[in-house]
Design brief:
The complex is a heterodimer of chains A (about 120) and B (about 525).
Chain A (H helix, E strand, L loop, with lengths): L3 H27 L6 H4 L19 H25 L1 H8 L2 H22 L8
Chain B lengths: L2 H4 L1 H19 L6 H26 L6 E3 L4 E3 L1 H27 L6 H18 L3 H19 L6 H32 L4 H10 L1 E2 L2 E2 L3 H18 L8 H8 L2 H27 L17 H20 L5 H24 L5 H31 L14 H4 L1 H15 L5 H15 L3 H26 L22 H23 L9 H14 L2
Helix pairs in contact in B: 2-3, 2-5, 3-4, 3-5, 4-5, 4-11, 4-14, 4-19, 4-20, 5-6, 5-11, 6-7, 6-11, 7-9, 7-10, 8-11, 9-11, 10-11, 10-13, 11-13, 11-14, 12-13, 12-18, 13-14, 13-17, 13-18, 14-16, 14-17, 14-19, 14-20, 16-18, 16-19, 17-18, 17-19
The chains are: A mainly alpha (about 120), B mainly alpha (about 525).
């Protein structure tokens, strides 16, 4: 006899598999197909030349933005467990828990000021 | 002292690093001088604070402190290594200011990176908790990866940076894998709790889960640290990285990273593994494990192989790089002597290692910044021939380089001799006579390539085609005074640490005040 939870997981999985199949089938059956040159051209976000050698130069700005994103993304990851446990931590250790997180945020904010002044966020130059 | 005061050296370094970073963002003139001198001031303040704490601990007014819910334990051992890091960092910073001025590299972020790397090193040696240890290790490593590739126009710099980054990242993964196994089997990341678990087989929740996996964890952790100190056969990254990085960065890396990694290894093996001097071998089943033999094998290879390779090198920086691997080998002899703690013999070995680390740091960083200055630090001019006749052209630089190199070779009146003497003596005292003889034998081989540097400096005619950077091109704020003062300090320290023991006190090894400090620092580990 199958566990109810296991059955639920399998059901969700099946539904998740069915929906895109149905959607793609419906789109293919019902939608009009007018092919223009632009529509049929291969496309990749941020890449001008999709045909030919795959080794090509990217603007270094992409990498800088990715790095900045990574830093602030990780900041949020550290904030989550702190926020969830805040009530308990505050009771056990006092207000210092609040201050500690703001020291962390303050250091990251100084980093933000640095990269702002250095022009890391200027897209046009 | 409040915990804020005790933690103040670290706070000072962190704030200093951030201020330097902001200074770079807001600066009007393209210069790195102000950042450099701010960095020097920060390190000097931190050094004064650290030294004051050491003195207070020595006089008994201050006891060791545990901060941040048992994550950090500040004792005189940790403070002593912090002092080593700060002293070598100060010399390296002076070298870096001059170097970047000479090379017209105006990005002062370097000084911020160095402060953060030093903060990582200093936190690493006082942390007694494995996660804190790992985070500090990364805080130390990441800025250094960037510093290696600071000359972005040179492909060697990029190669050095990338090699160090990829291999260092791999080693960090091995290290944290070991930490995970240790945590998995003992349920704790606290060093003293792990020490108890290793000693007795008991953890707070019962017994150790699987001793073989725990052994594996300790082994992987040790492998990660052995990579950082570049013990053979984990040394292959080192010559290329040291050669490609700017010379002051190489000196900083060779001195600081090794001091920090060795200190952590000493701490972990001494406290965590052997369980301190009070524990006899028979009660500790983990001492029967083959780790001690592994350290002997590592030590022998690390002493012999780089010394043989260095004989055939022609680049000065590579010779010094191989010599720094060999020095790690000599220190591993001390680590082996320390691991076999009969009575308080282990303490003597730890004190000898601390003495060696300080001496090694000073002479290495001195030698690297001088070589960077003399040869101009370009790959085409890095051969030994570029030193020809420099002894008469730049007498002061060559004199200090000669002292550093002779000290590395272990010539008696200099500090390097006492470092080797104390480490090898501790090995003999613990009954490792064969190992000590082997160490002396390999250090005799090394004398050949050290003397080659001197021969090229003083006994070869200058070659016209090979000229260093235009002299005086690197004008710093004090017109090279700071550079000369730093080098004078290096020479003085090596002479003082070398001659002091002989002239002031006649009894060895209770010879100098410095040695007393080292011993005092070593005793603090036994009390953990």
């Amino acid at each position: 006899m199958m566990d109810v939870n296991t059955f639920g997981v399998i059901l969700v999985f099946l539904v998740a598999l069915t929906i895109p199949i149905v959607a793609m089938l419906l789109g293919r059956l019902l939608g009009p197909r007018r092919e223009t040159e632009v529509k049929m051209a291969p496309f990749e976000c941020g890449v001008d030349n999709t045909v030919g050698r795959s080794r090509q130069r990217f603007s270094v700005k992409f990498y800088i933005i990715a790095l900045i994103f990574l830093v602030f993304d990780l900041e949020v990851i550290f904030l989550y467990p702190w926020a969830i446990d805040f009530r308990e931590l505050n009771r056990a250790l006092g207000f210092v828990v609040f201050i500690e997180m703001f020291i962390f945020l303050g250091i990251l904010f100084l980093g933000y000021i640095y990269l702002f002044k250095k022009g890391a966020l200027d897209w046009e130059d | 002292m409040t915990s804020f005061e005790i933690f103040s050296p670290y706070t000072v370094l962190c704030v200093g690093g951030l201020v330097v970073l902001l200074l770079e963002a807001f600066k009007k003139h393209p210069t790195q001088l102000y950042s450099g001198y701010l960095s020097l001031a920060t390190q000097a303040i931190a050094l004064v604070l650290v030294w004051r704490q050491i003195l207070l601990m020595k006089s008994g007014e201050l006891s060791s402190a545990t901060l941040f819910r048992n994550a950090i334990h500040i004792d005189s051992f940790g403070l002593f290594v912090c002092a080593i890091v700060l002293v070598t960092g100060l010399i390296a910073t002076v070298g870096a200011i001059e170097y970047f001025e000479r090379k017209q590299i105006r990005y002062g972020e370097y000084h911020s990176f160095q402060l953060f790397a030093m903060l990582g090193m200093m936190l690493m040696v006082v942390s007694v908790e494995l996660v804190t240890l790992f985070i500090s290790l990364e805080l130390m490593s990441l800025p250094i990866y960037v510093m290696c590739g600071y000359r972005r126009d040179r492909s060697e710099g990029i190669e050095s940076s990338l090699k160090y980054f990829i291999l260092g990242g791999f080693a960090a993964a091995v290290l944290i894998f070991g930490i995970a196994h240790i945590y998995g089997q003992t349920g704790t990341t606290n060093l003293t709790d792990i020490a108890v678990a290793l000693r007795t087989g008991q953890v707070s929740g019962g017994v150790i889960g699987n001793t073989a996996l725990l052994q594996m964890g300790v082994g992987l952790l040790a492998a990660g640290l052995l990579f950082k100190i570049a013990a053979v056969p984990l040394h292959f990254w080192l010559p290329d990285v040291y050669e490609g990085a700017p010379a002051p960065v190489t000196g900083f890396m060779a001195a600081g990273v090794k001091a920090a990694a060795f200190a952590v290894m000493i701490k972990f093996l001494y406290v965590g593994y052997t369980g301190g001097p009070g524990v006899s071998e028979s009660t500790n089943p983990f001492l029967q494990a083959p780790f001690d033999q592994i350290i002997v094998v590592f030590a022998c290879m690390t002493m012999l192989i780089p010394n043989l390779i260095a004989l055939r090198q022609t680049s000065v920086k590579r010779i010094l790089a191989y010599s720094s691997i060999a020095h790690a080998g000599y220190m591993l002899v001390g680590v082996r002597a320390m691991s076999s703690s009969q009575d308080t013999g282990g303490d003597q070995a730890v004190a000898a290692l601390l003495y060696y680390l300080m001496v090694y740091g000073i002479m290495t960083v001195g030698a690297f910044i001088i070589v960077g200055r003399i040869t101009g630090d370009e790959k085409e001019r890095s051969s030994l021939d570029s030193l020809n006749g420099i002894g008469y052209e730049m007498p002061f630089l060559s004199f200090v380089l000669a002292i550093c190199v002779l000290s590395m070779a272990g010539a008696p009146p200099l500090a390097g001799f006492w470092g080797k003497y104390l480490v090898f003596k501790s090995a003999v005292d613990q009954g490792f006579i064969g190992l000590a003889v082997f160490a002396v034998f390999t250090s005799v081989i090394a004398v050949y390539y050290y003397l080659r540097i001197l021969v090229h400096l003083y006994m070869r005619p200058a070659v016209e085609a090979v000229k260093p950077d235009a002299a005086g091109a690197g004008v710093t704020l004090f017109r090279d005074w700071d550079f000369n003062i730093a080098l004078g300090t290096v020479a003085f320290a090596l002479l003082w640490l070398g001659i002091g023991p002989v002239s002031v006190f006649n009894v060895i090894p209770d010879c100098s005040r410095f040695w007393n400090w080292a011993q005092f620092a070593a005793y603090s580990l036994a009390g953990m």
